[in-house]
Amino acid sequence: MDCRHIQFCDRKERIDLEQLRSLFDLAAFWAKGRRLEDLATAIAFSEPVIGVWDGDRLIGFARATSDGIYRAMIWDVVIHPDYQGAGLGRKLVETVLSHPRLSRVERVYLTTTNQQAFYERIGFQPNGSTTMVLHNQPMDSPCPAWMAEISQ
Known about the structure:
Blueprint: E1 7-9, H1 17-27, H2 36-44, E2 49-54, E3 57-66, E4 71-79, H3 88-98, E5 107-110, H4 116-122, H5 145-150
Parallel strand pairs: 4-5
Antiparallel strand pairs: 1-2, 2-3, 3-4
């Protein structure tokens, strides 16, 4: 596949949420059915956000969160199935890693269900010693009462 015309862009305002949701629904079992407003929030709180474009068509996406020096986490790496196998996924992850917000970070984490070998080829290593998860319950209020008291 000739991918010379494919563009990688770190302007999060360019991400079309409808296209992103369609891409997730098609190519990311772990992200099916995400709400547009939730996608907008995730993007707003992420840096970098990288879109992969074939013209006006969003064909890839990844985002990260980080403190900029010690830890970072890569999220939501996805490439449209029609474009997989052409090296775009690797380039997408490398683009995220080379972004100034992540390039100096001591440790970069990600979670994956089925793509361990792909990430190992990029340099990631399995890390069973730090994997923990808290299934947090959504809050009714955006700000808990105790937090409102602290900010006064």
